[in-house]
Amino acid sequence: MKKNVVIGVTGQLGTGKSTVAAMFAEFGASVINADLLAHRALRSRGACYRKVVKTFGKGILSKTEIDHAKLSQIVFADEKQLRKLENIVHPFVIKETRKQVAAFKRAGQKVIILDVPLLFETGMDKLTDMTIAVKASKVKQLARCARQGRLNRSQAIQRMRFQLPMFEKVRRADMIVNNDGTLSQTKKQVKKIWEVIQRRYIY
């Protein structure tokens, strides 16, 4: 049996993958959040800041910080611009994820969760022993985006176009969590998967 296991958790915008990742954390897993790594990299002292500003211009700044709304308007309106951003940020996120996984393994952490929206798109599934896709209906996805107050309906749909279709994420994943129901129903599914992970990889 393995001393530790790396699990990739993915899903489209608004499916609730970070909620599922947090549930795994409650059971004792350590979580690496790819979105958080990317956001840190774009801060004024972050690893990708200077290159992103050089590529997209100072118009994306609010004072000295990158304004994510301004940057998003550019990259989600033009796939070529999005690819430029991804080519800067994704290699850093992958490198940093590898470092954090190695650190967790050295610390003896048994279950490491990678919370990565673009797990398959970036090839980060190759870092994992198992993958989980969190799915939800399009209605639920859009409702969550609206409730979080970050994106309106058209913005959410526009961003989903640049992600792997949900059916493809589900097809490629080893296990599925259906997050259309209550939090309690979702947690029951997560608990069952946690038990599978323990039996399959740890004990």
What does this entry look like structurally?
- Strands 2-5-1-6-7 form a 5-stranded parallel β-sheet, sandwiched between helices. It has a two-stranded antiparallel ribbon with strand order 3-4.
- The protein has a domain at 5-40 and 98-202: P-loop containing nucleotide triphosphate hydrolases (Rossmann fold), CATH 3.40.50.300.
- The chain has 9 helices and 7 strands; from the N terminus they run βαβααββααββαααβα.
- Helices cover 53% and strands 14% of the residues.
- A hairpin with a 2-residue loop joins strand 3 and strand 4 (65-66).
- It has helices at 17-26, 34-41, 49-56, 68-75, 79-106, 138-148, 153-160, 166-172, 183-202; strands at residues 5-10, 30-33, 61-62, 65-66, 111-115, 130-135, 175-178.
- Helix 2 (34-41) packs across helix 5.
- By secondary structure, the protein is α/β, with parallel strands linked by helices.
Looking at this protein, list some descriptive labels.
203 residues, alpha/beta, Rossmann fold, five-stranded parallel β-sheet, two-stranded antiparallel sheet, 7 strands, globular
Alpha-beta content class: alpha/beta
In CATH's first tier, which class of one domain applies?
Alpha Beta
Architecture per CATH nomenclature, i.e. the level-2 architecture of one domain = 3-Layer(aba) Sandwich
Largest sheet: 5 strands, parallel
Instruction: Spell the H/E element sequence.
Output: EHEHHEEHHEEHHHEH
Strand content: 5-15%
Percent range of helical residues: 40-55%
How much is the radius of gyration in Å? 17 Å
Strand order of the largest sheet: 2-5-1-6-7
Number of helices: 9
Number of strands: 7
Low-confidence stretches: none
What's the mean pLDDT score? 95
Q: Identify the overall geometry.
A: globular
The fold-level CATH name of one domain is Rossmann fold
CATH H-level name of one domain... which superfamily? P-loop containing nucleotide triphosphate hydrolases
N/C terminus separation: 6 Å
